[in-house]
Amino acid sequence: MNVTLHIDRLILDGVSIPHAQRPLLQAAIEAELGRLITTNGIAPNWLAGGAVPTVPAGNIQLTADHHPTEMGQQIAQAVYRGLGS
Predict the structure, then answer these.
(1) Which residues, given as ranges, of the chain have pLDDT below 70?
(2) 3-state secondary structure string across 14-43
């Protein structure tokens, strides 16, 4: 089974990511979402495909010394939860 997930825009309210670290953040989100979907699957209502304007990912608590990779994993986990998987 192939799964294509397109995130048009990711809004991180109140978080500043240096431009040079954004590729690390993106790679971490992609890797963790891929891992979660491969390991746990996706909700049955997504099997036929579909599009939604927003996914309620909720709040993420970050430490003062957050690393883009750790932040990306947390974001991916929140998005995955928001997909209802």
Answers:
(1) 1, 63-64, 85
(2) CCCCCHHHHHHHHHHHHHHHHHHHHHHCCC
CA 8, 13, 19, 23: dihedral to nearest 10 degrees?
-50
- CA-CA distance, 63 to 45, in Å (whole number)? 34
Given a contact cutoff of 8 angstroms between Cβ atoms, the answer to whether 70 and 31 are in contact is: no
Q: Which of 33, 25, 35, 31 is nearest to 71 (CA)?
A: 25
Q: How far apart are CA 41 and CA 21, in angstroms?
A: 29
Chain centre to alpha carbon of residue 55:
10
Q: What is the pLDDT of residues 19-28, one digit of tens each?
A: 999 999 999 9
